[in-house]
């Protein structure tokens, strides 16, 4: 995983392609397409137009809490992948825990583990907490 990357949080669709392409042209190899930004398709397009092999760029997006739960998490993942038009996601973290509904957080974590087993995600992670330890069982 590269130490530095480009995040596209809250960038408009028209303000996404050029910065992503410029970052990739200058050697940036990590692109973070956040969970709710709505510009994954543009990030995917910029990746394809870069001329770089997919394995050269570390791509991450997050699973937002509104999509936690077994069915919702898988649906959100499939939607992200269809927008990015990639086969494997390098990092797919859960964005943050939902303490009042922790069961759905654990369900989302288990979906991430399944995606790892299936080779569709290289690394599931959680931000703000350690879901793997909290959701054992």
Strands, helices and their partners?
Blueprint: E1 6-7, H1 17-25, E2 30-33, H2 40-49, E3 58-61, H3 70-84, E4 89-94, H4 102-117, E5 121-126, H5 131-134
Parallel strand pairs: 1-2, 2-3, 4-5
Helix pairs in contact: 1-2, 2-3, 3-4
Can you give me a brief rundown of this structure?
With 137 residues, the chain is an alpha/beta fold.
* Second CATH tier, the architecture: Alpha-Beta Barrel
Order of helices and strands: EHEHEHEHEH
Q: What characteristic shape results from the CA principal axes?
A: globular
CATH superfamily: NADP-dependent oxidoreductase domain
CATH fold name: TIM Barrel
Protein name: Aldo/keto reductase family protein
Organism: Allosediminivita pacifica
GO molecular function, one term: oxidoreductase activity, acting on the CH-OH group of donors, NAD or NADP as acceptor
Family: Belongs to the aldo/keto reductase family.
